[in-house]
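Hi there, hope your week has been kind to you so far. It would help a lot if you went through both lines with me. No rush at all, and the record is pasted right below:

***
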Amino acid sequence: MRRAAWYNALVTFEITASEWNTFVAAHPQGHILQTPAWADLKCAFGWSAARVGIRQTGASPGDGAARPIIAGAQILFRPLPLGLAAIAYIPEGPLVDWRDDSLVGFLFNALDNVCCSANAIFLKIEPPTAHFKLQTSNFKPSPHTIQPRRTLVVDLCPDESAILDSMKQKTRYNIRLAAKKGVTVSLSNDLDTFVQLMQVTGRRDRFGVHSAAYYRKAYELFHPTGRAQLFVATYEGQPLAGLMLFTMGRRAWYFYGGSSDAERNRMPAYLLQWQAMRWAKARGCTEYDLWGVPDENEETLEANFDSRADGLWGVYRFKRGFGGALVRSPGAFDRVYSPLLYKLYLAYLKRRRTEDE
């Protein structure tokens, strides 16, 4: 553990989006969900955001206003009914050296101040690293996660033939079959087609999709900076499947994808994923995150993927074929400011899940 140092907490109006973007992009655990553009996306649909950064000031406080940020978090706030309170949420953060107890403690004091000023009844974090120390930060495991806890990550470091060799035989076959059957994949900016493909997939596979405005806003925010790209697979000019890929540094994330009900025997989604992987690799990405599979160990996943289709089981059947490593995050943790309102909030979530079943 490093010796304690003087730190200076900076709240949102003192941290520019450009400065925060630079910090997140350079941080070893930096994630697309901590970027200013992600906050802008959520703010366009009912959330608000704040950023807390910590600067190391050196020997005494007050002398380091221009020093780089060394730790911080972007907080999203969702107002509750009547607007009298809110929930606070940090996806894939905070970004901090969890081994430095002094720094961690200082950061959470700053986060508490911002959250309480926003009338948050609790702060939920989904940290990106297993170095998170629950016992030293007054959090408790949350029964409610927002981002998928488990995912499959494809290693893009090997050459393309080696990446293909790491896939399941059936997946390799389907990739080649799609190309043989005349499917082509191209970069696109056709958001209308992509939205239609997402809507068809949501109805067919019975899962929720975002609004058309949400996908358009995401593309408008991330594509101009090179951090999002749309891919569409077609056959004889007919769109069959599409995906929106996000990238930052050496990482790529497959967040959104859909396919039509037509020409499914041509396996367009398989070639689509492979071409997106090739594109990400050519841009210098070394990881391709398939983003979201059931939160079960590998033995359970492999024993049940053929018989289950609920939740994320259907997408696991597809994603497993690409040979990614199964990765599990620490999960979600809540820091409670209002115990009574927090209890009522959990009861509401439980009732809503029961009604959805």
